[in-house]
Amino acid sequence: MASSALSRLSNINRHLKPTASLFDSDGASRMPVKISSEVSNALSRGHAVVALESTIISHGMPYPQNLETAKEVEAIVRTNGAVPATVAILDGIPCIGLSIEQLERLAILGTQAQKTARRDIAHIVATKGNGATTVSASMFFASMVGIPVFVTGGIGGVHRHGENTMDISSDLTELGRTPVAVISAGVKSILDIPRTLEYLETQGVCVAAYKTNEFPAFFTEKSGSKVHCRVDTPEDCAQLIDASIKLKLGTGILIAVPIPKEHAASGGLIESAIQLALKEASDKNIIGNAETPFLLARVNELTGGASLASRLSLTALDIALVKNNAAIGAKISVALAQIRKSCDTEGCSTSIIGSSGLMSVRPCLEKPLLAAVVNYFQVTQDLKLTKQTFDEFKHATPS
């Protein structure tokens, strides 16, 4: 009974700590974040939750294909034992976990919803706009509410010739400062993969490859770049994430999953198309954030989808990648939840060498109780502040 109570307290603390108070210590109001009841309940009980981006819904494909894809990806997460938490900003309110109605609204909005990276969050919220979150914004909100696993198709990186243009995706800097594990198919092959990996190393990001020693290149299984960390099972991934969290490294983890063999593209053919598209972009002086959409569209035109082993279009390949990553990400999240449950129930011991020798600390049993008490007094203070504000308004209003 006691261990069960401690486990529940620990889960609630992990869930509430980022957003437990409606006010800061000086009484200033905090910005609201809306968490769906399904996601909130899962987090408070220590169940597996997987964060999902929303840019693929609004900018990845037309309606109603985008809505069907979103529902299918969420279904895959549930089938594999986790709760999906699609992230978006609707009417200026960051939402973690969308209802079917909200998913449909976002799908219908399409490109009217602004593509939202970390830099855009404040603007979208302040103007009460609608934002479809990219990798960086999704990671930010996932970390805010305590979701440690995020699934996407592929991440951004250092653009080719980035040493001259300094065109580097904010996904990379987000991985360097936000403790969320990103499950992706690697970096898009239109980017400079070696420089991207070098940049991630500079940011202190652990890059792991799933069941391979080579970093995958989104469209293909191989990029020619080796990784220093290999993970072969969801349990391996969960142990890696758990260790990073306990060490408080403060950085994300990139777990790169190769495209399934049945969907693998012909590397030589698609690389030739990429090189031709890059030359055309250079000739037309297409640079910056307009370059990637141009390259993707041009590669699709040049290959006609025929370069894919399964003869899928590039859009369909994106969907296949996201679905594969969603299944693996859900399994990782489940494994991580099991590790945390075991830790909370049995007590985790951390060895520390102090002046008196080796000591054993059990933070999973001690911290939740203290944090729960702190949260209780913080919420009590919030209620007092709310009552005080109401009383001042009441006395200031003529009867």
Characterise the protein shown here.
It is a single chain. The chain is an alpha/beta fold and 399 residues long. Helix content is 51%, strand content 13%. The protein contains 15 helices and 13 strands. It has helices at 2-16, 37-44, 55-59, 65-79, 100-109, 121-126, 135-145, 162-165, 170-177, 193-202, 234-246, 267-283, 291-303, 314-346, 363-396, and strands at residues 34-35, 49-52, 83-90, 93-96, 114-116, 131-133, 149-151, 181-184, 206-210, 229-231, 253-256, 350-354, 357-361. Strands 1, 2, 3, 4, 5, 6, 7, 8, 9, 10 and 11 form an 11-stranded mixed β-sheet that branches. α4 runs antiparallel to α5 and α4 (65-79) runs parallel beside α14 (314-346). The longest helix is centred in the last third of the chain and has 34 residues, at 363-396. The radius of gyration is 23 Å and the shape is globular. The chain starts with a helix and ends with a helix.
